[in-house]
Design brief:
The protein is of the alpha/beta class. The protein has one domain: TIM Barrel (Alpha-Beta Barrel). The protein is about 40% helix and about 15% strand. It is built from 15 helices and 14 strands. Strands 4-13-12-11-10-7-6-5 form an 8-stranded parallel sheet. Strands 1-14 form a two-stranded antiparallel sheet. β8 and β9 form a beta hairpin. α1 runs antiparallel to α15. The structure holds flavin mononucleotide.
Length: about 400
């Protein structure tokens, strides 16, 4: 019998080699409807799959015989040293994956000296993340119809010492995540099949549900109608609270309430990048929300080069959506990004094994980046340039 390659089927993070391996562990650890919430994209998932394909289409052209002994993945963001050109992207409902999921992710980020971004829709109070995790904290802002919610978040994040605000601008009309919806018989009510599957995950039930009950949208709980604060009940009410009226004119209002670094998360055109620069923003995040919003949307890596060439001297340019490998990070840096953000990569680690799992994900990405830098003849992240790519 010829030797057959087998995909990873381990259960522990120590034997996992890749983010895809961590994903396989995560898939076993949490109920299907929770995994689907993390995994899925909008509609035909063309944006979701396109993000990976766009990274895959770029190839390196490596120079050879360059001494890279003593190379480092360290960099600076906003003048502050950073352990790697990486930051954890904001994701809501992290408490559904593991108890105190936000704190676990923030601690993992702190261990690597990189920023962690807390979602407006987190299951932990922003003040508790600051006091229990520390590290470099950024706050993500969703502006809802009731502007008092955003004003409250901005005020509290400033008081708690958050370094930067990421104003998310690509979810003002909420994405149509049909795969996610299929797990519910009506808004907030999981199907019997989904509930049964949860019963098959006793460890998750004991650790996540039994300890504190269904996780809640703690940061905005006081503004929600009764029954809407729980992660299951609220996930259908919250999308209706988003404000489709937001425009560039609202940046001035955000600026009135937020004194520190301001990044716009949701830019994909050169014109918008210029606008962010002219309005005094400090950075932009090129993103398609990991394929969860507009379907058939361009991949951020496809527009990165032109945008970085236009505003890279004035703005910090970050990118996310589809980053799973050190090679992806190197490609983004080569095209002019200052750093990349990861959403699902660290969520897979978190779901697989809590904080150690999230750390393992960051270890994989940074070790892979270090290796690829060596193979590309780069000693520092500043050496990674467009001459290394053919697209
Ligand atoms: C489960 C999940 C929840 C998310 N929640 C938020 C959120 O609350 N706010 C936000 O700005 N982006 C949110 N995002 C988008 C991420 O910040 C990020 O843009 C995306 O995950 C990057 O793609 P990747 O998962 O392929 O790395 C979420 C993404 C996922 C996967």
């Amino acid at each position: 019998m010829p030797w057959k390659r087998r995909p990873f089927d381990g259960r522990d993070i120590a034997s996992a080699h890749t983010i895809a391996d961590l994903r396989a562990v995560a898939r076993r650890r949490v109920p299907g409807f929770v995994f689907e919430y993390v995994e899925g994209g909008a509609e035909d998932e063309a944006t979701l799959t396109g993000n990976r394909a766009a990274f895959g289409a770029l190839r390196f052209v490596p120079p050879t015989l360059i001494d890279t002994e003593g190379r480092s993945v360290g960099t600076e963001l906003f003048g502050v040293p950073c352990g790697a050109p990486l930051a954890i992207a904001p994701t809501g409902l992290n408490g559904m994956l593991c108890p105190d999921g936000d704190i676990a992710l923030a601690r993992a980020a702190a261990a690597f000296g990189i920023p962690f971004t807390l979602s407006t829709l987190s299951t932990t109070l922003l003040e508790d993340v600051a006091s229990h995790a520390g590290g470099r904290l950024w706050m993500q802002l969703y502006v809802m119809k009731n502007r008092a919610i955003a004003e409250d978040i901005m005020h509290r994040a400033a008081v708690a010492g958050y370094e930067a605000l990421l104003f998310t601008t690509d979810a003002n009309v909420f994405g149509n995540r049909e795969w996610d919806k299929r797990n519910y018989r009506k808004p907030g009510k999981p199907r019997a099949r989904a509930a049964l599957d949860a019963l098959r995950h006793p460890r998750w039930l004991a650790q996540v549900l039994a300890r504190h009950g269904v996780p809640r949208f703690r940061n905005i709980e006081k503004f929600l109608p009764p029954g809407a604060a729980s992660a299951v009940g609220g996930s259908t009410i919250i999308p209706q609270m988003f404000a489709p009226t937001l425009t560039w004119a609202d940046i001035a209002w955000v600026r009135e309430h937020w004194p520190r670094k301001l990044l716009i998360k949701g830019v994909l055109t050169v014109a918008d990048a210029r606008r962010a620069a002219s309005l005094g923003c400090d950075g932009i995040v090129l993103t398609n929300h990991g394929g969860r919003q507009l379907d058939y949307c361009v991949a951020p890596i496809e527009v990165l080069g032109e945008i970085a060439a236009e505003v890279g001297d004035r703005l910090a340019v970050l990118i996310d959506s589809g980053v799973r490998r050190g090679t992806d990070i190197a490609k983004a840096l080569a095209l002019g990004a200052d750093a990349v953000m990861v959403g699902r990569a660290t969520l897979y680690g978190l779901a697989a094994a809590g904080e150690p799992g999230a750390r393992r994900a960051l270890e994989m990405l940074t070790v892979e980046l270090d290796r690829v830098m060596g193979q590309l003849g780069c000693r520092s992240v500043a050496d990674i340039g467009s001459h290394l790519l053919r697209g």
